[in-house]
Amino acid sequence: xxxxxxxxxxxxxxxxxxxxxxxxxxxxxxxxxxxxxxxxxxxxxxxxxxxxxxxxxxxxxxxxxxxxxxxxxxxxxxxxxxxxxxxxxxxxxxxxxxxxxxxxxxxxxxxxxxxxxxxxxxxxxxxxxxxxxxxxxxxxxxxxxxxxxxxxxxxxxxxxxxxxxxx
Length: 167
Hints:
Elements: H1 3-24, E1 27-29, E2 36-38, H2 40-51, H3 53-70, H4 77-97, H5 104-128, H6 137-162
Antiparallel strand pairs: 1-2
Helix pairs in contact: 1-2, 1-3, 2-3, 2-4, 2-6, 3-4, 4-5, 5-6
């Protein structure tokens, strides 16, 4: 295993742990869908910015679904794994296709967030058996995404100075 591969593995595991902690520790439960709002999306966005599409998506899926597993939301483990992986992958895809744009990460985070909001709305609606009551969770998911984007904006450039995978 090369030094670069070991670095990628370590940083991916580190971000999975950071995503888990920021998802698990600070959360606001939803009475409608039995889900919750958290700060983990900011670290998902950072993982994609710093680690790239594939490793960012892996860290997102593992960290977020681990929070569901250990936090008593076992019914959300598989949906969360898929939703967060796809959210991060969408973001990374947009970054990769628009490398010349300074804020392509922001466009990617916004599009990935829209995916996440729609996906959790559908999953929550299926779990609850109602597509009406779960509309109340959409604003909380929008706020969660907005805080995540703010976290990524505040920390992204600073962390890029210290985390260099390609070396």
